[in-house]
Amino acid sequence: MPDFAGFALTCLRGDRLVFTGLDFHLAPGGALVLLGPNGSGKSSLLRVMGGLLKPFRGELRWGDARVSDDPDAHRANVQYVGHLDAVKPVLSAAENLAFWAAMAGAADPMARARQALDRLGVPHIADVPGRCLSAGQKRRLNLARLLAAPAPLWLLDEPTVALDRAAIALFEGMIADHRAAGGMVALSTHTDIATPGGTDLHLDRFAPDSGHDDDDFLDEDGEEDAP
Ligand SMILES: Nc1ncnc2c1ncn2[C@@H]1O[C@H](COP(=O)(O)OP(=O)(O)OP(=O)(O)O)[C@@H](O)[C@H]1O
C-alpha cells in the first residue's frame, strides 16, 4: 500500500483563505485526526484529500504519483463519509448499501450489504426505507458503506455524530481492523475517538497569519474550485 501525503497545501473557499502551508503524511496503517475550532478547515481538508476540492496551492501524492495527474484513479482509492447523509429515502437500508457495493464491483452486492449492516449492529434495519431511519441509524448506514464498498483511504467528517456509545465502540473497532490491514484513515472530530498511534493535526496552526498578504491569493482566483 502506498503512502498518502500532502505538501504545502493552501485552501481557498469563496474569498476566504482557510489554511496555508499545510503538510501531512499518512503511512499504511496510519491515522490522522483533524482537530480545530468550527470553521478552521477540517471538512475542507478532507475534501481536498478526497479530490472533491482542488487545493489552491500545493499537491497531494499517492505513493510516487501526483494525485492531480489522475484524479479519477485517486477517487477510486477513497471512501468519503461526510456530513450530508447519502441515504436515498425510497430505498431500504440494504438497497442503499447494495448500490454502493455494486458501484465498487462487489460480486454479490446484497450479501455484502447485509454483512456490513450486521457488523454495524443494525441487521434489523435492512428492509427499512431510508426515510424511516433515525439519525443514528442513518449514520450507521453511512459508516457501513466503508465495509460494503471498501477503499484503502477512509475520509470521515465527524463520523461519530448521532452515534450512541455502543456504535462508537463498534466504529473504533472497524477503524482498528482497517488499519491493521494496512488501510489509512483521516477523520475530523470534536470528541474523542480512539485512534491509538494516530497523529493529531491541529488546523488552527495553519490559519493564515496576519503577515499574509491575502490579496496575493485572491487576485489569481477568487472563486472556489469546482469539485
Ligand atoms: N461551500 C463553501 N463555500 C465557501 N466557503 C465555504 C464553503 N464551505 C465552507 N466554507 C468556509 O470555509 C471555512 C472552513 O470551513 P470548514 O467546513 O472546512 O471548517 P470545519 O473546521 O470543518 O468546521 P466545523 O468544525 O464547523 O465543521 C469556513 O470559513 C467556511 O465558512
Question: What features would you describe in this structure?
Answer:
- By secondary structure, this protein is an alpha/beta fold.
- The chain has two domains: 1-77 and 151-209, Rossmann fold (3-Layer(aba) Sandwich), CATH 3.40.50; 87-150.
- Helix content is 31%, strand content 23%.
- It has seven helices and nine strands, in the order βββαββαβαααβαββα.
- The chain has helices spanning 42-49, 71-76, 93-103, 109-119, 135-148, 165-180, 215-218; strands at 4-13, 16-26, 31-35, 57-62, 65-66, 78-81, 153-157, 184-188, 199-202.
- The strands form two sheets. It has a five-stranded parallel sheet, sandwiched between helices. Strands 2-1-4-5 form a four-stranded antiparallel sheet, with helices on one face.
- Strand 7 (153-157), helix 6 and strand 8 form a beta-alpha-beta unit.
- Helix 3 packs parallel to helix 5.
- The longest helix is centred in the last third of the chain and has 16 residues, at 165-180.
- Residues 210-227 have low confidence and may be disordered.
- It binds adenosine-5'-triphosphate.
- Adenosine-5'-triphosphate binds next to strand 2 and helix 1.
- Residues 13-14, 16, 18, 36, 38-44, 188, 203, 224 line the site of adenosine-5'-triphosphate.
- This is Heme ABC exporter ATP-binding protein CcmA.
- InterPro entries: AAA+_ATPase (IPR003593), ABC_transporter-like_ATP-bd (IPR003439), ABC_transporter-like_CS (IPR017871), ABC_transptr_haem_export_CcmA (IPR005895), P-loop_NTPase (IPR027417).
- Its EC number is 3.6.3.41.
- Residues 199-227 are annotated as: Disordered.
- Residues 2-222 form the ABC transporter domain.
